Sequence to fold (355 residues):
Amino acid sequence: MKQRRRRGYVRAFRAAFPYTIPVLTGYLFIGTAFGVMFQEKGYNFLWAILMSVLVYAGSGQYLAVNFFAPGVGFLNMIFMTFMVNVRHIFYGLSLLERFGRMGKKRLYMIFSLTDETYSLLCITKAPKDVPEDQFLFAVAVWDHLYWIAGSAIGAMAGALIPFNAKGIDFAMTALFIVIFVEQWLAGGKRIPAMIGVVSTAALRILFGGENFVLPSMICIMLCLIFGRRYIEEDIEKGVDGHAA
Amino acid sequence: MPLSVGHSLLIIAVVSVTTFATRAIPFLLFPKGKEIPPLIQYLGKALPPAVIGMLVIYCLKGVNLLTYPYAAPEIIAGTVVVILHIWKRNNLLSIGVGTVLYMVLIQQVFG
Fold:
């Protein structure tokens, strides 16, 4: 029984891998950038790995590099980390039921809910021959491993990268554009998609490049709540079979 | 290292717990087994497309439309990703070509 379950996981990891390749590309390089920054502060690859294992947040870890200096207060760290991750508060709302069916793995799924993993979980559906909980878990673990590997590489060999990698982080932007286009082509959900783009763009212009995320999330929630009647019709129209 | 080992470990612990807390809040508010209110169920369905739209803009937060090169690399590479993806529907192709094109644009063309 135990062995059959283990073989199930092997299959789940194999099935999930192709879906995670875009994140592999992005995380290796964004993770590398974190490793380089952390190493420049005087922390070697073991520290970078520890941080990526235990924290696992892109912009959160970039920010946290600044905490490793004398005189930064812990309350200040908590507040700044909270603000940079504030969008994550809303992600779980879409996954309450799916994670609820995942038993012991639920805690790890919540821990590993980054932007990229969230987006993948929302648009992918487990293949028929793989149990959903194992598939979702495999996606989350793959992404986490890429992130850890990227930060280790950056801390060990960041200076040795033989080509100019400037701009490679566009892989992440391109990933979100691709997911956006996929959703759009699937039909339905176009109204909430537009609400997301338009309100974030408007509030980015209004609030500037640093403090627009929380206002954007609030604006999105309000638009979704007030437009509920129309949006629910729009969602019904969707012909896609995606779980979210 | 600018700080002691103990202090550094404590920072990692604080950042780790705070990050986890932001992700865990909805699961604490609506624990397993408790009925999820219809409004929250609706938001759970409507949020992903909106959040993905937000994340596209979030990734582009550093661009400035008013100074050179007027977001041209982002607009060109982004448009190519969209067109290529509608045409071929191949994730890796769209992301790979878009990223390489963007790198060439910011390093060579507008660099």
Summary: Residues 5-29 of chain B form the longest helix (25 residues). The helical segments of chain B are 5-29, 38-59, 72-88, 91-109. Residues 1-59 of chain B form one domain.
